[in-house]
Amino acid sequence: MNIHEYQAKELLRRYGVAVLDGHVAWTPEEAEAAAAKLPGPVTVVKSQIHAGGRGAGRFADDPNGKGGVRLAKSPAEAKAAAAAMIGHTLVTKQTGPQGKLVSRVYVEAGCDIARELYLGLLVDRATSRLTIMASTEGGMEIEEVAEHHPEKILKVAIDPASGLSGFHARKLAFGLGLSGKQVGSFTKFATALYGAFQELDCAIVEINPLVVTGAGDIVALDAKVSFDDNALFRHKDLESLRDDSEMDPKELDAVRNDLNYVALDGEIGCMVNGAGLAMATMDIIKLYGSSPANFLDVGGTADAARVTEAFRIITSDANVKAILVNIFGGIAKCDMIATGIVEASKNLHLSVPLVVRLEGTNVELGKKILAESGLAIIPADNLADAAQKVVAAVKKGG
């Protein structure tokens, strides 16, 4: 689950992470009032959307104008900047050409910036440890730094038994070229950020840019926080931070039905149980010349009702020209899945080709249920056979 910058900073502030003062505003008038509360002489008005590159982005109705982050030298200028953002669609390299509608802005105090750095925390699959990444290339996307200047990315993997120690932070501080007071300020900042990451069960925390002020303080100028969905049951208060308007309606529908769904731009809908199998299914669709319309993992305990909801979400995508069901039966037995497929096909009046590959527990009974359903279901013997058949069905229909 992702949250907005202003929400992330409010959370991080509670853990002692240094952030600037600011206020969220839903109207230009609120932005003006927010700017008047801040010390000045400069405030910054920031569009709040779940996407990076806001400063370099452009509004769809004013592509040649200013971006989604603007300086204001008075409350009146803050009001004008907010008016140009709220209710308008901001297009950045992360939103895609459709952009995202700005419903609120964050009005933040200005800052005396001496240097811009990067600091991020994530779980590194290679080491199975929480890893802190830092770079002198603040303001740039870390993927670009990794591609063009990999030597400028510093990494420290933290042993979960001992946690973050002072020497970890000092190693990063020295690697970033910090000295004197800056080292102590960075150590305090990194320790607080690590504590927030651990306690909140975060998936990613990214501070970009992390700034060194003229006075030598370390402050988060921006903040991106993403939570591990599987741990949200431990943080009921965080659920209220979810912004449904930022989610694809199909993805939001999937969340409400305990389905793992990500919308893509292909033409073959996928319903699979297991994330690894789902990724393999998407790959083989590409291998045989088409593209997946979604990632959808119904989970290992899927029943007929969940299968029906999965079909409903898949078919709500107008780009779907065929559906591939790839199930390895375990706890969710093949006969149970087959029953769900039949019920869903009938209830939803499925009109696109449907290819089904079943394997695992009660597979023969599952195949029998499909064969006797009277529906035009295309059976497949294995994954390769299923991919070839569903791609052929799409090309025949096209």
UniProtKB/TrEMBL annotation:
It comes from the Bacteria. Residues 9-236 form the ATP-grasp domain. Pathway: Carbohydrate metabolism; tricarboxylic acid cycle; succinate from succinyl-CoA (ligase route): step 1/1; One-carbon metabolism; formaldehyde assimilation via serine pathway. One of its GO terms (molecular function) is ATP binding. Its EC number is 6.2.1.5. GO terms for biological process: succinyl-CoA metabolic process; tricarboxylic acid cycle. Mg(2+) binds at N208, D222. Its cofactor is Mg(2+). HAMAP family: Succ_CoA_beta (MF_00558). Succinyl-CoA synthetase functions in the citric acid cycle (TCA), coupling the hydrolysis of succinyl-CoA to the synthesis of either ATP or GTP and thus represents the only step of substrate-level phosphorylation in the TCA. The beta subunit provides nucleotide specificity of the enzyme and binds the substrate succinate, while the binding sites for coenzyme A and phosphate are found in the alpha subunit. Belongs to the succinate/malate CoA ligase beta subunit family. This is Succinate--CoA ligase [ADP-forming] subunit beta. It comes from Siccirubricoccus deserti. The lineage of its organism: Bacteria, Pseudomonadati, Pseudomonadota, Alphaproteobacteria, Acetobacterales. The gene is sucC.
